[in-house]
Amino acid sequence: MNQRRQVEEPHGEALYNARAATPDYLRIFDRWARDSAAYRAQCKRRGNGRFDVPYGPRAAETLDLFLPSEAAKATLMYVHGGYWSSLDKSDASWIAPAFVDAGYAVAVINYALYPEVSVGAIADQVRAAAAWLYRQCPGWQVSGGRLYACGHSAGGHLATLLLATDWTKFDSSLATSRPVAAAISVSGLYDLVPLLDVPSVAAVHGMEQGAAMQASPARLSPHSGSRLLTALGNDENQGFKQQAAIIAERWAHVHAGQVDCPRRNHFTILDELAQRDGSIFNAALALLSSPHS
């Protein structure tokens, strides 16, 4: 008698634990840190970098700013990943050079980490950074205060959340209700509810379901006129692929497309953002220069 073999669908850790799925992730992190330190040293010599600039009162509320040689076309705010509980802006400076060379100011921000603060508090810090940058843009000759956000993994979640923020409630003194024109989310997270069942994602695992829903961009409405570009590696955990499908469906009216990256995992995908011939970099440039964003 033949029996059907039951194929178990991946769940929990298998869906979302990217480090467990990438044995050499520490080597990748070391490269990020080395390349970032080298670029900061170069900018210090050239005088086109400003470091540990405060955007808020907390010690963690600082950013590094990298400026082009002439007036910036726009400002790109970069938000690092790390499941809201690890990594630092000093690991992410290496994202900036290609964009700076293309004429954009790049602000790589820090934020406090879980368990010192909650995901909701981190989201507010990132909003505060965006509001600060929007006000400061004229200082480096950015026309019209053009501000964009970009993030990886948890940073992609935070960057996307900016497009669904009620800015009139968050900061009524802003001269606009939409300071962030568009966002680029690389391997982002958009619905936090599935992460409630993933113990390694401690920042979300300890949340109430209601709080997870309120912090999920896919369960919120983006601003009319916003644009969201997403990117995904073909070798990602299945959970990130599910997340990308969710946001593409629920934000279809603002979704600017998805960049699929063959032979890239959750971490090596960032090479496609940082390299001048990278698929994400070139899609991002097209978005940043679009009259619709």
UniProtKB/TrEMBL annotation:
It comes from Pusillimonas noertemannii. Keywords: Hydrolase. InterPro entries: AB_hydrolase_fold, BD-FAE-like_dom, GDXG_lipolytic_enzyme. One of its GO terms (molecular function) is hydrolase activity. Transmembrane segments: none annotated. SUPFAM superfamilies: alpha/beta-Hydrolases. It holds the Pfam family BD-FAE. This is Arylformamidase. Residues 63-197 form the BD-FAE-like domain. PANTHER family: AB HYDROLASE SUPERFAMILY PROTEIN C4A8.06C, KYNURENINE FORMAMIDASE. Coiled coil: none annotated.
